[in-house]
Amino acid sequence: MTTFLLRRIGLIVPTLFFVSLLIFGLQQLLPGDPATALAGEDRDPTVIAFLRQKYHLDQPLPVRYALWVEAVAQGDLGESIRIKRPVFDLIAEKLPVTGELALMALLVALAIGLPAGIIAAVKHGTPVDYGASMAALWGLSIPNFWLGILLILLFSVELGLLPASGFVSPAESLQQNLLTLIMPAFVLGNAIAAVMMRHTRSAMLQVLSADFVRTARAKGLPEIRVILRHALRNALIPVVTLGALEFGQLLSGAVLTEQVFAIPGFGKLIVDAVFNRDYAVVQGVVLFTAFTYILLNLFADIAYVVLNPRLRT
Known about the structure:
By secondary structure, this protein is mainly alpha-helical. It has helices at residues 2-10, 12-27, 34-38, 45-54, 61-73, 87-122, 127-141, 144-158, 174-208, 211-218, 223-253, 255-260, 266-275, 279-307. It contains 14 helices and no strands.
C-alpha cells in the first residue's frame, strides 16, 4: 500500500508542471493588453510602459513563466492587477463559499442518487427501475441555469420562501446561510445525482450477481443486510471515484450557477478575472483548482484500498 501511495504522490509534481504550462500558455491567447486596460481612458504611453515593466509584461514569455513558477514555488501566487490584493487572499476568501456550496450539492446528490441507484438495481426490470432511469435522464438533460431560474421564480418570486440570490456567511446567520444555498445546491446536486444513480445502479447490478452475494443469501442472511453490507460496499468503488471527481468539478465549474444566484465564489472570481485580463488571478485560481482536483483523486485512490481489501496486496 505504501508503494501504491508513493507512486500516486510522485505523479503530483509532473502533473502540476504540465498544468502550469497549459495555464500560462493558453492565457496568452486572451485578447487585449492588461497594461492598456489598467492605464485608463487616457492610455498614457508612459503609464503603459511603467505597468508593463512593473508586472513583467515587457519580458519574453519564458522569462515571465520562470518568474511566475519561482514565485509559486515559494507560496506566492501573485497580486491581482485590478484590485491590488494577493491572489492567495482572494482564494482564501472565496474558497469557503464555493466549498460549502459544493459540499451541500454533493450531499444532495448522495441523498438522491445513491438510494435511487440501489433501489433501481434491486428492482431491476420493474417499473421502479424504468422510472428511476427516466428521472436520471431528466436530471442530465436540464441545464443548470434554466433550472435555477425556474426555482427562483417558484420559491422566491411566487411563494416567497427562499431568498432569490446572495450569500450570507454562517458566522453571521447559519439559518440564513442555509436558506441562500438550498436552491443552488439542489441545482448542482440534481445533475450529479442523475450520474451517481446510473453508476450506482450499474455497479450494484454487477455485484448482486456475484458468487459471494449468492453465498450470503444461501446462508439465510436478511436481504437488507446482503444488499447494504455485502453488495453496496463492493459497489461503492466507482461511486467514490465519481464523488471525488464531481466535487473537484463543483469547485471549479459552478460558474453559471454562481452567476444565476449571485454567489461570490470561485465562479464569479474567475469570470471577473478573465473579463478584466487579471492574469495573476486566473493563473492562481486555475492552478489551485488543479491541485485540489489532484488531491481529491489521491483521496479516491486511498478510499479504493480501504473499501477493497484485494487492492492492499
